[in-house]
């Protein structure tokens, strides 16, 4: 009887230890300090004769996660020097089946993209984006900075695909966190409810192929969209 | 083997199997009573389970996978049943009551080996291996044989997207659209690290390597959608590197290409392309 | 706690015996290791002005300094220093080095007694399984729900890699560490291993290899799976350097241990211990040791090239600069396939000892069995490319590799023949070790048959990189290997600790483990059939039922292992005192006290037959077993 009790206690201690490790790893996940950006409602909008709820999101891309945003707040507190980052959020929440309009200001420098396919605008309303005041269906693949590429997670709306490129900042290789930004504006129609993942498809990280560093660390060039 | 050893073996191994009273009283008979139902269950599982476990077949290659799975399971069932049958019977029939006591039961018969048993065992496994091998080689060579009306699709993996392009037409897409009923040659490469191109219901798979083009072919034989996944861990968003494929008729396929900006002539020559 | 050998009680060593060893232990190892790591960090940091903390060079230099420093601190190289200064150790120094008169403290020292090293390994293996099992629980928790956000994909990928590698390290040493060190020399009637210092070195090298791989979580994580295929691993964060340093250190340890095992069996057998009389477990140990000597250096090469690619920019594996990932994949699997058998052969050997002892029958077809294991080891070095059937590396070699892979099922069948033949008409004594043999027979058949599907190239084109593969190798490595190791623990526990393992707790653990394995891995087979890829942080809704089954099974399985651990720990303290030969077995290790004295036997044993002469007392004299004659000497033994 005593042995049974001690056996149960051992199992409980084991379970508690494992749970503690679990809590530790759970807290490891990097979500930008500003948390999830909930899309702002902006009336309704009609696309191809159908009326949708209209919401907006806005974010920036910065050449260094260690620096500050144009409004003076840090990009990512504790972020790595020289790692580009989306800011201030990397998680977004939008309503299902509605038109999402994104206002994106891009401050980072550009380079040649490895797959020119991602220099094209895809899956947006009208297949185009307004880049620096010009409505275009793509940019120069030799001067691309980042892309905002969204897809449905396994089993969630698998055909959902939106990808919009952004060109280099006006300062080119001299890019800084708060000057020379280019604007990218586009809309897309959100899919069914569920979790979607987005990441940048321009290899803007470090290491071989440019997919190390910022590209491989969750929260810099990647995140989730919660469609509710 | 000395004559004495031979006598030992006959006494210890052969006797209880082939001689000495009615079959059901010999150990071999009792094991047989376990073996028969086990084998039957195994065969039933072999023939009926895979249909429920695998996703729907959408290509000749995936049909091969399922057939081979059934065949191998059917061959394995009797072998597994021998081992499990003897093990099970040994617990039921040969266990000595002194399970909890500190003194062991009396020694068992000193059977040190058996040329006959070993030969039968080895012979059976050699035959089985030959069957498996011949089957596998035949299957493989039939899959690799190029067909008259084959068509090429270029597949590019990159962290963490698939793109598919249809040579000559200028069309590139993140969805894989293929016509039904003709062999598709996938030319697979990668922009960065190693990925695994896996159109699941087509039952084939090949890695996408940087700077190399690897080849795999499949013949979709059913209209509908299938999953395309990455089967080789490729970093952060490896789990999300998946998309859908669709098998359509040749006419629908041509129309889809045109709707994605391909010229009618390029579509015509691509559709007619035979390798 | 343990029964001390007469020598240890009576012998008073001089105050200076052992020299520097007197002041060295695990703590000095840690101190010198950390100091040396700090120095390494400062120097590399200063030399590389341009680099910042976390760069590959700095991490590499720091961690190599740690490994070297730790081993200097604990005394791994003392003898070499002494010899280079022209001194030698005298007899008293050697006795001190073997732990004489140091009680429990010798377990925290560079101790050359093979029994101490074996016990150290046993504890280390349990710790590593604890870590690896905890990480497995993280994986299964993440996979409880589709698109789970329990962990970020980055954390999840790192956990998958480190779970895999920690488990591989643990399983490689789980039997060859504790039992080939503690038991094997006694089985052949030797006083110790051939190279006692190398033996201690092999243990402390593994210990020093553990912190880097665990530290990888703090260095950005290894997102590349335990296989760490290049170029993905070349691109990975500095954690990958830590991973590679762990591998290199571990390979050195396995190599050193393998040589030691081989030389011990070749040169240290007691009188009459001819090759034909060696216990199967000894055959298993040397065959696995030899196979390790062939296989592990390939891993050293693969990971050294990885380090140079990452640190100094060579391009062995970088396609854009003329390298190829296939080079890594080949060197990796030239290690990787034989390694599976380095893991499996020792537990199989142990299980055959168990089969004979608890069926009260000689091992069936001894010579065929030994040839079978040699056959497995030989074929094992010719099958590596079956892991590369779908890479496109050599399509024309598909047929030959399919042939060699399927051929392996013939010698593997011999293992089953030997086990089943030994049980056949035996007097089955259902003590705990025997339970594990039965579980092995069940699991390993499942693991073996699913391996045959994977050897067929067209079928592999569906299952490669798929959870089916994961389930297959867990059935073999856990369901076969770890279950064999658990059998070995319960079999030799009385000999190692001097106490009986509590069988009631052990059997409770057994049933929980047995159920847990089936639920966990049948669930993963199901995932595989449905088409779920391996190593994914998220999956589609359709896979949820299968994943939930697997996760629930995994929780059950972990519970079972914790109960087993409880049996081990509590019996170590409170168990019934063990007699010298609780199983009435005939091999040499049972003919001396439990635990054995320093140098194992008070009288050198003489062997006149193999240790399997059950039921042969009334046979012709030349076949009568007279395995031992040290019984008279084991005065400190128990009731027998
Ligand atoms: Cu980017
Ligand atoms: Cu991939
Ligand atoms: Cu293998």
TrEMBL record, chain A:
<protein>
    <submittedName>
        <fullName>Unannotated protein</fullName>
    </submittedName>
</protein>
TrEMBL record, chain B:
<keyword id="KW-0472">Membrane</keyword>
<feature type="transmembrane region" description="Helical">
    <location>
        <begin position="31"/>
        <end position="49"/>
    </location>
</feature>
<dbReference type="InterPro" id="IPR008972">
    <property type="entry name" value="Cupredoxin"/>
</dbReference>
<feature type="transmembrane region" description="Helical">
    <location>
        <begin position="69"/>
        <end position="92"/>
    </location>
</feature>
<keyword id="KW-0186">Copper</keyword>
<feature type="domain" description="Cytochrome oxidase subunit II copper A binding">
    <location>
        <begin position="148"/>
        <end position="259"/>
    </location>
</feature>
<dbReference type="GO" id="GO:0042773">
    <property type="term" value="P:ATP synthesis coupled electron transport"/>
</dbReference>
<dbReference type="GO" id="GO:0005507">
    <property type="term" value="F:copper ion binding"/>
</dbReference>
<protein>
    <recommendedName>
        <fullName>cytochrome-c oxidase</fullName>
        <ecNumber>7.1.1.9</ecNumber>
    </recommendedName>
</protein>
<dbReference type="GO" id="GO:0016020">
    <property type="term" value="C:membrane"/>
</dbReference>
<dbReference type="InterPro" id="IPR036257">
    <property type="entry name" value="Cyt_c_oxidase_su2_TM_sf"/>
</dbReference>
<keyword id="KW-1133">Transmembrane helix</keyword>
<keyword id="KW-0249">Electron transport</keyword>
<keyword id="KW-1278">Translocase</keyword>
<dbReference type="GO" id="GO:0004129">
    <property type="term" value="F:cytochrome-c oxidase activity"/>
</dbReference>
UniProtKB/TrEMBL annotation, chain C:
<dbReference type="GO" id="GO:0009060">
    <property type="term" value="P:aerobic respiration"/>
</dbReference>
<feature type="domain" description="Cytochrome oxidase subunit I profile">
    <location>
        <begin position="104"/>
        <end position="608"/>
    </location>
</feature>
<dbReference type="GO" id="GO:0022904">
    <property type="term" value="P:respiratory electron transport chain"/>
</dbReference>
<protein>
    <submittedName>
        <fullName>Unannotated protein</fullName>
    </submittedName>
</protein>
<feature type="transmembrane region" description="Helical">
    <location>
        <begin position="280"/>
        <end position="300"/>
    </location>
</feature>
<dbReference type="GO" id="GO:0004129">
    <property type="term" value="F:cytochrome-c oxidase activity"/>
</dbReference>
<dbReference type="GO" id="GO:0020037">
    <property type="term" value="F:heme binding"/>
</dbReference>
<feature type="transmembrane region" description="Helical">
    <location>
        <begin position="505"/>
        <end position="526"/>
    </location>
</feature>
<feature type="transmembrane region" description="Helical">
    <location>
        <begin position="474"/>
        <end position="493"/>
    </location>
</feature>
<dbReference type="InterPro" id="IPR000883">
    <property type="entry name" value="Cyt_C_Oxase_1"/>
</dbReference>
<feature type="region of interest" description="Disordered">
    <location>
        <begin position="609"/>
        <end position="640"/>
    </location>
</feature>
<dbReference type="InterPro" id="IPR023616">
    <property type="entry name" value="Cyt_c_oxase-like_su1_dom"/>
</dbReference>
<dbReference type="Pfam" id="PF00115">
    <property type="entry name" value="COX1"/>
</dbReference>
<feature type="transmembrane region" description="Helical">
    <location>
        <begin position="63"/>
        <end position="81"/>
    </location>
</feature>
<dbReference type="GO" id="GO:0015990">
    <property type="term" value="P:electron transport coupled proton transport"/>
</dbReference>
